Amino acid sequence: MRKIILFFIAVSCQDVFSQELFVVTDPASNVPANSLAVNVMQSLFKEEMKSGYNYHFMPEVTYGLNKNIMFRASAFISNRSNQLVTEGGSFYTKYRFYSSDDLNSHFRMAAFGRYSFNNADIHQEQIEILGHNTGFEGGFVATKLIKKLAISSSISFEKAFDNKPDYPFPDNMGDNATNYTLSFGKLMYPKKYTSYKQTNINLMIEFVGQTINENGKSYVDVVPAIQFIFNSQARLDFAYRQELLSSMVRSAPNGFYFNLYYTFFNLKK
Amino acid sequence: MKKINKTYLIVASIVLMFSIKGNAQIVKAEIRATGLTCSMCSNAINKQLKTLPEVVNVETDLNTNTFTVTLTEGNNLSPKVFKEKVEKAGFFIGTLVITAKPETITKSPYILVNDIATNGTEIQFQVVDKGYVTEKEFKKLSKSYKNVETYAAINEDDFHIKILN
User: Fold this and answer.
1) pTM of the prediction?
2) Closest partner CB to B34 (pick from A101, A148, A235)
3) Which of A63, A242, B9, B64 is the most buried (most CB within 10 A)?
4) Does ipTM exceed 0.85?
């Protein structure tokens, strides 16, 4: 696993390429200052241990405070208890601390942190503070854009706490993990721009992995996605997440994402 | 008597202020932004520029990320405002070419790095300071302008300009 991490770091340090509004990974770039982005994320994952699908509904608002700092608040709603229940929420912030831009290219680095709370039952070894565990995550992300290709890689530390009030974190499971991602995105259409009204199509592929620090149990998933951008303001993502390898218990590793995203530019003048 | 003098002074200074404004103004700014290729990113810059009340129109070439900004007559904008707006959108300026009344550059914040006689009704110049050119270009220019003492000082409130026409 250490080799894989080193590989990801090595790749992220190389001069590689950009369309970076990924489905799972947040890039090093921020939303524009004084703008509000609203995202409605839905996911439908097939349950491995029982029949049926696990549906998550996750509305988010993201605000750009200035050119380097953004904040995000999310709510987690799921059908795990057979009806739609709000299980928790999350606060996220990202600080861009390095930018090196050139014509049609950039390299950026950012630090991010997230705190989430959740009251659902803990039913898997995978630590996921986006909709499953109470806990925090902190890490770094680097993004390189060269013309139409974006490559982004992140590494983070994630720690889970008890899902209060009813579900303490099990003693027999590792409560902290290292997460790593590697994402590629490419602008496929248009070949040549004529106006802001043109629909853009991006293709993406992301690799998302986690290793539980205590016992080395890991997984790596692949997430291919297609993304449409309408009117240079709205975004629609379809993605599929597939487990590639795993040595840990996961309740629903494979499934679909469907995101709607809208940016309100310049809230106050 | 004193009162009249005061009023006269105020009126005179207002008239003077406006006449300076009228002569020393940026007519048009052509901004090439760096660090982006997507139209959503470009739109972020477009929307930022349009928040300026002095902006009449923004024309965008999405393939080169060039924004041609037409400004109202009598505006008092400095090149700094374009830098701030582009950076607020999350990007940087690659080149900034300004069209202005010739009187504009005779005033203090502007320092000429080349000498070209101009006799047109409008002049075009490029701002060559750090933050108004790409990082690579700035490194190159730092060598070329090593004799210009103020250039290396990177003072945010003066602008080194290269006359283009």
Assistant:
1) 0.83
2) A101
3) A63
4) no
